[in-house]
User: Fold this.
Amino acid sequence: MRYLFSIGLLSVIGFFSYSSISKKTIPKKIFIATNNNKNYNDIVFQKEEILQSSGGTKSVIFNSKGSKLYAMNLEGLSVYEFDRERKKLTRQFKFKPHRGMGWDYQTKLPVPSWQEKPVEACFSNEDKILWVSLHNAQGIVPIKIDDNFHCPITWDTSLTKLITITNIDGSSYKIDAPLIKTGLTPKVIAATNNNNLLVSNWHSKTVSILNINNNSFPFAKLTKDIKVEAIPRGISVDEKNGKSFIAIMGSNSIAVIDNKTWTLEKYIKVLANPRHIVLGDENKMFVSFNSLNQVACINTNTGNTLFSSPSHLNPRSIVLSKNKKFLFVTCYNSNTLDIFKIIDNGFVPMYSLNCPGKPVGIDLYEDDNKIEAWVCNYVGGNLKIFTFNKNLLQN
Assistant:
């Protein structure tokens, strides 16, 4: 069901349930289908679909063409490749397991586990390399998506991750992926346009900086570790202004890094427990606050919070539509996908869609007529695809 609320009402209540607030009276509107990717100002939910993935699907990412989606299966020790148009699994990248030590986030104690648990990923080199963080291996691996690659015989075998790739027809082959050490419990990876990677290391409380070289094995080299004040997670790169923003999830701040000197410039003080960051237009930064059940828009220059809104329980990953007018939020402990329309001075909640199985990761596909939100559910081990039509809304 779709809901529209007044911004004034949202500012009065601290926490809300969409279903507990009466629907705003809506004047008659005219909807015009649009074939201009930037011209739409409204989205209408159409349908949902479910695809099975593997255990503990933690994050998802589309290639730049939007033709393939990759799901990081933390408990499944694998990466799954899906064909977007056909909604079919096309390849499985399965890591050979090695015993290691993990972390119990409930008891906050180390536990026996496997090293090869994929967490997050990013692409570089025109989608030729998929960089994947391994939760218990203290580093990241490059997967050359279309190369049958093996490490040189001189490479340290303890830093080699064997991957079995299984095609849709059942045929399979093996490749090697070099492990590049970054820090304890690597999480988010982000790539810059000038061939650098940033990795947030949860337990090391560092951000690793790596230089990418596609022509030289192991394809990236650690150049620097930047110490931050508490546990880091989300990363967003501002190419225009040469800055990177790091969500310090273990504190109440966002670290600002200078991308030219790779030094910590300052901290922006925010509300507690920021998890994920995405950048909008006009110096706007959107942040999910996991423990506060809130999303906010912050000015990247001043650090001032411009506006905020309650969300459902434990907002995790967030993503913006291409026109920067709609924010999609996975809410882990309420099993919902929240969608907000962004106006000049606030958020307008539009939808809260049922997404059972602990939704955590999300990425969007867009064409001229529609948006597909691909959400991965950690406990469910599946992907739920929500499709929205784009419209030009006129009074």
Q: What stands out?
A: The chain has two domains: 1-49+270-395, 56-230.
